[in-house]
């Protein structure tokens, strides 16, 4: 089942919902369709164009949002799908300061890594093996990252996500299947 990008009345990206839920929002006039997906949803009596992007008709006040959730997909997008140590294709998640030595599972201590580097590094500190990272890990910012972190994607969402920090995120996520 395809998913639909939901925007606030202010066009801020709010989240991703299953198609059926988005259709109910549109049919109840709680949202309007901004982009159609090109497919039709068939009921007993009619066919309705399925949305790809909807915008709420009334502004919803969103409570304070904490940091972008640390998911594997969002992490790989932040690091461009590349190993931060050798630049090879990343297939695993590494804790820079190993967990066994007190390292946290947080954006500034978690990086994408290839399996080989991850294995060689094991539970050592970078200083112990003389390695450097290609970039310093930091939490991503921007509402688009919350959408990217869900793993659902649609090229029609791009123009709506770009103003919210997606331009480099989505450029880097291209080609990542993780
Ligand atoms: Zn590597």
Notes on the protein architecture:
Keywords: Endonuclease, Hydrolase, Nuclease. With 178 residues, this protein is α+β, with helices and mostly antiparallel strands. The protein has 2 domains: 87 residues, no CATH class; 58 residues, Orthogonal Bundle (DNA Binding (I), subunit A), CATH 1.10.30. The chain has 7 helices and 6 strands, in the order ββαββαββααααα. Strand 1 and strand 2 form a beta hairpin. The protein is elongated, with a radius of gyration of 20 Å.
Please give the structural blueprint:
Layout lengths: L2 E5 L5 E6 H9 L3 E12 L4 E10 L15 H7 L13 E4 L14 E4 L1 H7 L4 H4 L14 H5 L9 H4 L4 H8 L5
Parallel strand pairs: 1-4
Antiparallel strand pairs: 1-2, 3-4, 5-6
Zinc ion binds next to helix 3.
């Amino acid at each position: 089942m395809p998913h639909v990008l939901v925007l606030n009345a202010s066009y801020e990206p709010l989240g991703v919902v299953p198609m059926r839920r988005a259709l109910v929002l549109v049919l109840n006039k709680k949202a309007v369709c901004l982009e159609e997906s090109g497919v039709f949803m068939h009921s007993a009596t009619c066919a309705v164009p399925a949305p790809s992007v909807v915008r709420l008709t009334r502004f919803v006040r969103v409570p304070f949002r904490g940091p972008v959730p640390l998911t594997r997909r969002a992490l790989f997008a932040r690091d461009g799908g590349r190993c931060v140590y050798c630049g090879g294709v990343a297939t695993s998640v590494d804790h820079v300061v190993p967990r066994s030595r007190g390292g946290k599972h947080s954006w500034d201590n978690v990086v994408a890594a290839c399996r080989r580097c991850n294995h060689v590094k094991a539970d050592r500190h970078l200083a112990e093996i003389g390695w450097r990272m290609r970039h310093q890990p930091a939490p991503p910012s921007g509402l688009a990252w919350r959408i990217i972190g869900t793993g659902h994607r649609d090229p029609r969402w791009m123009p709506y996500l770009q103003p919210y920090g997606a331009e480099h995120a989505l450029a880097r996520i291209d080609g990542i299947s993780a």
